[in-house]
Fold this sequence. Notes:
Structural class: mainly alpha
Radius of gyration: 18 Å
Oligomer: single chain
Strand content: under 5%
Largest sheet: none
Number of strands: 0
Helix content: over 70%
Distance between the termini: 54 Å
Order of helices and strands: HHHHHHHHHHH
Amino acid sequence: MIWTFLDSGSLAPWWVFAAVAVIAYFCGCFNGAVIVSKYILRDDVRNHGSGNAGLTNFYRTFGGMLTFVVILTDVLKAVAAILAARWLFYSAFSIHFSAAGTVELWNTLAEYWAGLFCLLGHMFPCMFRFKGGKGILSGGTIAIMIDWRIALVVWGGFLVLSILTKYVSLGSIWAGASFPFATWFVYHSGELTILAVVIGGLILWQHRGNMARLVKGTENKFHFKRKG
């Protein structure tokens, strides 16, 4: 439906897609774990533990109240990327919405498109040698902003599996794998599902090492602890 409308020639500003991609990518590059560890603690989190610039490795390595700064950074950058995408899409395409009757679908397309590039920035930040995190916290924030039903599937499975097994990676794998199915169930849109497959696939790819360790039985379990 979306691509049929685009191919009709009624929409000229393809640059909006490029602009959203660039803005969302650079929003994603603001990796909370790297910024806090490298510039506040003066000890890059990527030099410790799994080498991943994510919330779990940061907490395992440093702990403390600065963990909440990491959470806030990774949540807010996803929110900023989605809000910017909504505004740009509405500014460019609003005159066509009433005629096409696709306001909600276009708004959702903006969210998925921005979410994809925000995660790419988080996982492969150009300012940090393309070595970032695995995208679970930012990806979960994106799911919440897209639709509560998708967020319920993604977050529900993540929390249940992580709490019961103490393997955060297992919950993360569920999140990546379930995202495309939840998208299809809610929207029945081929275009949105394709984007969801790419997003979910990126998350699974980033957890390929965790999958191997889960199979071998060598994956580390998560335990709450207090550090200064």
